[in-house]
Write a sequence for this structure.
């Protein structure tokens, strides 16, 4: 550990190096992932009717690799110095979709309704109505 009051000057270069490595690794993984998406799908013998949709999904996934690595590095650094709240706050803020918040609420309601219907169906199977 080099985080203390006497060694604070050594921390900034280490953090900068960690973020630079995250960005560089993210760019490499993005480029490699985008170029190897189709060969990997064909190697796994993916059905031909879903190859195009799978490739689009994987391109989007690999496109966000830089942001994923930068967040994980920042969260790891903050947790290493004892701050576990800020990474949580960042996740909460990024998960709240300000432009489609009504859409997210609708999705939650639909899932809750489906879960309640499933529980109700299971209740009928476990406790069937008696014939009259």
């Amino acid at each position: 550990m080099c985080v203390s009051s006497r060694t604070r000057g050594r921390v900034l270069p280490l953090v900068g190096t960690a973020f630079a490595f995250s960005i560089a690794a993210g760019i490499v993984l993005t480029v490699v992932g985008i170029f190897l998406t189709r060969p990997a799908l064909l190697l796994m013998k993916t059905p031909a009717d879903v190859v195009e949709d799978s490739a689009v999904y994987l391109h989007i996934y690999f496109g966000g690799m830089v942001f994923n690595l930068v967040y994980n590095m920042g969260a790891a650094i903050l947790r290493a110095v004892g701050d576990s709240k800020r990474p949580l706050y960042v996740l909460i803020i990024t998960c709240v979709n300000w432009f489609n918040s009504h859409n997210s609420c609708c999705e939650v309601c639909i899932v809750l309704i489906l879960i309640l219907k499933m529980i109700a169906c299971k209740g009928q199977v476990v406790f069937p109505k008696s014939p009259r």
